[in-house]
Amino acid sequence: MHLAALHIYPVKSLRGVPVRTAEVDSLGAAGDRRFLVVDPSGSFMTQRAVPRMALVGTSVDGEKLTLRSSGLADIQIRRAPDRGAALAPVRVWSSEGLMAEDCGDAPAAWLSTALGAPCRLVRIGPAFNRPVRPAASRPGDKVGFADAFPFLVTSEESLRDLNDR
Fold first, then answer.
1. In this predicted structure, what is the pLDDT of residue 135?
2. What is the rounded CA–CA span in Å between residue 53 and residue 70?
3. For the chain, how many helices (H) and strands (E)?
4. Residue 135: what are its φ and ψ, rounded to 5°?
5. How far is CA 30 from each of CA 25, 60, 69, rounded to the nearest angstrom?
6. How many CB atoms lie within 10 A of CB 95?
7. pLDDT tens string 115-155
8. Which residues pair with 131 in a beta bridge?
């Protein structure tokens, strides 16, 4: 087997970041899908419904997540959990009531402008707990804001087929 590329997506459904290596923690690749954009009801937003999300770039360093979009100044958000942050119940697919940390008004305003829709940015913190579906996991397995599993893999052939269609 040959690993052709490795990407993390710091914010679910925003542009990913190619990486040469990735550390693994209890939620999968470190830094992958640890942030989420939610609508005013707390439901996750994705490119499936908001294609403009594909235009928002992400980058990460040790302490900051940076978001960028044409016509807007970059914004930086602390990556580490903040025990003082307001908690917000969010939903990812059938996982409801997940307690995430709200990242504040400035990122919410920035993303709402970039996406043309009201939204907020939330992050995983100590109160967050989302088990992997029992039928597909071992007891104690967890997942972040990914669709269902800590690791998502595809083949180049499958990607070519999808792009051809």
1. 85
2. 12
3. 2, 11
4. -65, -20
5. 6, 11, 24
6. 16
7. 999 999 999 999 999 999 888 899 999 999 999 999 888 99
8. 142
DSSP state of 103: -
For 5-39, write each residue's pLDDT tens digit: 999 999 999 999 999 999 999 999 999 999 999 99
Confidence of residue 48 (pLDDT cuts 50, 70, 90): very high
Q: d(Cα 114, Cα 99) in Å, to the nearest integer? A: 25
d(CA 118, CA 5) in angstroms, rounded, equals: 33
Q: How far is CA 109 from CA 53, 75, 104, 143, 163, in A?
A: 15, 11, 9, 28, 34
- Strands 17-18 and 75-78, by their bridges, are unpaired
- CA nearest neighbour of 14 among 29, 30, 34: 34
What are the C-alpha distances in Å from 155 to residues 1, 8, 99, 102? 10, 16, 34, 35
